[in-house]
Design goal:
The structure holds two protein chains of two kinds. Chain A is an all-beta fold. Chain A is 0% helix and 50% strand. Classes of the chains: A mainly beta, B mainly beta.
Chain lengths: 113, 113
């Protein structure tokens, strides 16, 4: 069972460079999410997609864009990376209903220098 | 707006002793409450959740949590801690019909042999 798969696992970027984090889930979930994790701050929601064809901003969307390519895939793009975007990024998915569990990928460690 | 507080950054216990990780929440409606565990350099693993019904919820690896509506708390417990329980624990809350999951800052648990 692959679950939620993220790539790449590790990435170092220079300030101003762009990159896309890829995420795919094989659980036929409707909803997908991108979170970032920073020490002492827990996980903060960047963007989410309640269903295929829709995306919405979360708590910290500035500097990011997303694409819900199809039901399986949800990518996160940094157009012009900044050191403040150094973080661990997690993709997640769920069946959409409020009581359903959200399942997470293994994370992508991004460093912007 | 929904929010979660984990009042302890760190919890240290001896192996074999009871383990408690505290969590309080704030929501405007009915809460759905979750606990996740994160091992170093890994993603978040689901432990247990409260949706409705019995206030005592049992989950993976011998963990349980008690929902207390009057105290707006959802503390995680394990009767006898193991060294392998050493990890970062997150409490999270979701409101009814809301797609977003809001996390606490996390509590680092260290179990000494």
């Amino acid at each position: 069972n692959a679950g939620v798969t993220q790539t790449p696992k590790f990435q170092v970027l220079k300030t101003g460079q762009s990159m896309t984090l890829q995420c795919a889930q094989d659980m036929n979930h409707n909803s997908m999410y991108w979170y970032r994790q920073d020490p002492g701050m827990g996980l903060r929601l960047i963007y989410y997609s309640a269903s295929e064809g829709t995306t919405d901003k979360g708590e910290v969307p500035n500097g990011y864009n997303v694409s819900r390519l199809n039901k399986r895939e949800f990518s996160l793009r940094l157009e012009s990376a900044a050191p403040s975007q150094t973080s661990v990024y997690f993709c997640a998915s769920s069946d959409g209903s409020s009581g359903n569990t959200i399942y997470f990928g293994e994370g992508s460690w991004l460093t912007v220098v | 707006a929904q929010s979660v507080a984990q009042p302890e950054d760190q919890v240290n216990v001896a192996e074999g002793n009871p383990l408690t990780v505290k969590c309080t929440y704030s929501v405007s409606g009915n809460p759905y409450l979750f606990w996740y565990v994160q091992y170093p350099n890994r993603g978040l693993q689901f432990l247990l959740k409260y949706i409705t019904g019995d206030n005592l919820v049992k989950g993976s690896y011998g963990f349980e949590a008690e929902f207390n509506k009057s105290q707006t708390s959802f503390h995680l417990k394990k009767p006898s801690a193991l060294v392998s329980d050493s990890a970062l624990y997150f409490c999270a809350v979701r409101e009814w019909e809301d797609y977003k999951l809001s996390f606490g800052a996390g509590t680092t648990v260290t179990v000494r042999a």
